[in-house]
Amino acid sequence: MSEAHVTMGAHSAPPMEAPPFAIPSKKLAMWLFIMADVMTFAACVAAYAFTRNATPDWPRPFHSVTSVGIMTFIMIASSATMLIAFRAAKTGDKAGAFRWMMITAALGFIFTLLHIRDWLNMMSQGVGLLQNPWGTAAFGAAFYSITGFSLLHISVGTIALAVVAIRYQGGRYNADDIEIVNLFWQFVGLVWLFIVPVVYLMNLAR
Amino acid sequence: MATTETHGIGKYVAVYVCLLVVVALQFFIGYQNIEGPRLVVRMLTFAVIETILVVFYLMNLSSEKRNFFQFVAFFMLFVLACMNYVWTDSFRLLLFRLTGFGPS
Q: Is residue B14 part of a domain?
């Protein structure tokens, strides 16, 4: 065995390289995931913009956006409750953090139900991926793909919130893990704030 | 400690109220009779304000280390600039369609 080998073996653990930007690796991974997701959503919105403006008979089916307004309010409220949960976790208030995270998950669940109701309403009016009663067929595909991608994120986020809250309560996760879920949840809320004007408010019936 | 905590909560409440106001303005503008690029520019301007509020304060980017803050902020501004460019550029297609000129 060489001398170098013996010297290395004498240490119990090799020296760890400092994480980039001197922030925890899990947090950096979540930020990088969010940045990748931002590009995906931006590409969807760009494709939607060109399709919408290049198509002569783009439909404007939304007569009222009351339901979307309620959904938006729920999403913003859930951002606030998530932030309260994170602050409670940082101060060591375990019960408070758990309670506020579960409230956030409940709001996310209500949002998901309202979103599915909105989809069922569109389907009952004959809007499918490849057809709709008002104009170009591309509308349905664009509507379902953009809102569906957002819905997927929100439903996965809701499940993640509940799982992290339960594990935090059980002592397996700590405040750092709640911070990571907070990042994801604030991000999905922000994405919804882009979808509302682009998909709904710009397509209000005149 | 209590004063700092109250100050911190006050900041978040202010950000939250601003966010609600900006979203309410978006809905208000949506119901106005504004068309085309003017509507898009207004909507995206409000969306950019919302992004800054959420990323800097609710996602706590403003309290991160300076080099990481710059890394994310430059990326975010680049994506927002690209989105604004693409949306406004897409109206070129609308103009081609309406005037009948443009690439065949």
A: yes
Nearest to A42 among B58, B59, B82 (CB): B82
**What is the nearest CA distance from B34 to chain A, expressed in angstroms?**
10
Domain presence at residue B104 = no
Structural domains in chain A, CATH included, are 66-206 (1.20.120.80)
In this structure, what are the phi and psi dihedrals at residue B89, rounded to the nearest 5 degrees? Answer: -65, -30
| Residue B93 domain boundaries | 2-99
pLDDT in tens, A92-128: 999 999 999 999 999 999 999 999 999 999 999 988 8
DSSP-assigned letters across all residues of A33-71: HHHHHHHHHHHHHHHHHHHHHH-TT----BS--HHHHHH
Q: What is the distance in angstroms between the CA of the first residue and the CA of the last residue of chain B?
A: 68
pTM given for the model: 0.86
Burial class (CB in 10 A: 0-12, 13-18, 19+), B75: middle
Out of B9, B50, B71, the one facing A190 most closely (by C-beta) is B50
Total domains in the fold of chain B:
1
ipTM over 0.85: no
> CB of B12 within 8 Å of any CB in chain A?
yes
Is residue B21 a part of any domain in this protein?
yes
